[in-house]
Amino acid sequence: MKTLARPRDKDEILRRLRSLRIDSARRWGRMSAHQMVCHLGDACRMGSGEMAVSPASGLPQRTIIKWIALYLPVNWPPDIRTRPEIDQVAGAGRCPSDFAADVAEVEALIEAFAARAGATEWPPHPIFGRMSASAWMRWGYLHVDHHLRQFGH
């Protein structure tokens, strides 16, 4: 299973992120490539506890859906809705500014997020609830992978 805690998996994600272009066409969803980059930054901030995101969790989300999302070896489906605070299309979260600078910032945020792999304190995920460091690292990889696939990268 790929995870941001594994250097080669993290490096693969960063290489794919760097290959993204501002005019990369989306295959699904509502975000532009630039909005997606900012969404990834907000998601890293959420995962590190720097950004509060409203919960939308229940027993199925914290158990069955979390297990399916993190451990079943299939790609996440298109058009999964995000929480309002990090919904770039709705105008929430960080606004896109300079594409290259925003990509560089997300690279740094992913590096910082991955560096927390050994941390014992993690905020609850808004949908999956309490998660271990290894679950957060797995989620981080899958989340970025999902959005890079959204743009063919």
Secondary structure elements and pairings:
Layout: H1 7-19, H2 33-47, H3 59-71, H4 99-115, H5 133-150
Helix pairs in contact: 1-4, 1-5, 2-4, 2-5
Describe the structure in your own words.
This protein is mostly helical and 153 residues long. It has helices at residues 7-19, 33-47, 59-71, 99-115, 133-150. The chain has a single domain, classed as Four Helix Bundle (Hemerythrin (Met), subunit A) (Up-down Bundle), CATH 1.20.120. The longest helix has 18 residues, at 133-150. The two termini are 19 Å apart. The model has no long low-confidence stretch (mean pLDDT 95).
Report the portion of residues in β strands.
under 5%
Total DSSP E strands:
0
Largest sheet: none
Number of helices: 5
Shape: globular
Q: What is the element string, with H for helices and E for strands?
A: HHHHH
- Which quaternary structure do these chains form? single chain
CATH C-level class:
Mainly Alpha
| Helix-strand category | mainly alpha
- The residue fraction in helices comes out at 40-55%
Terminal CA distance: 19 Å
On the 0 to 100 scale, the average pLDDT is 95
CATH topology: Four Helix Bundle (Hemerythrin (Met), subunit A)
Radius of gyration: 14 Å
The CATH architecture: Up-down Bundle
Count of all domains: 1
Low-pLDDT ranges: none
Compact overview of the structure:
The protein has five helices and no strands. It has 153 residues and is mostly helical.
